[in-house]
Design brief:
By secondary structure, the chain is of the alpha+beta class. It has one domain (about 10-90). It is built from 3 helices and 6 strands; from the N terminus they run E-E-E-E-H-E-H-H-E. It has helices at about 50-60, 70-75, 95, and strands at about 10-20, 25-30, 35-40, 45-50, 65, 100-105. Strands 1, 2, 3, 4, 5 and 6 form a 6-stranded antiparallel beta sheet that branches. A hairpin with a 5-residue loop joins strand 3 and strand 4 (about 45-50). It is globular, with a radius of gyration of 14 Å.
Length: about 110
């Protein structure tokens, strides 16, 4: 556990994004060593799923895509360059939360 009381025992972390009209919405998927998956969402909630597969299915059902799976064409649809798609960063969820939603300009 870190100084803020957050668990640091996760095996993997992935960033997912959705792009409803004029927004970029981030979600962080963490797979714990136990196999349980946690999704930190743009509302500040941490949703717990029994497995990574269930968490991924929930994200895909909500029209999220894995950042790692995106290419230049996917980013262009958002009106951005792939290099511009940088996930939020911070030491804890309190620092991440204000970065989880981003307003985008109109798409052409």
């Amino acid at each position: 556990m870190d100084q803020d009381g957050n668990e640091d025992d996760y095996a993997r972390e992935e960033w997912w994004l959705a792009a409803p009209e004029h927004l970029l919405v981030w979600a962080r998927l963490r797979v714990l060593d136990s196999g349980v998956a946690q999704v930190f969402d743009s509302q500040g909630a941490t949703l717990v799923y029994e497995s990574e597969d269930v968490a991924r299915a929930a994200l895909m059902d909500a029209d999220f895509r894995a950042l790692d799976g995106m290419d230049d064409d996917d980013a262009e649809v958002l009106g951005m360059l792939l290099e511009e798609l940088q996930p939020p960063h911070g030491h804890d969820e309190e620092e991440l939360l204000p970065q989880m939603l981003r307003t985008l300009g109109p798409r052409h």
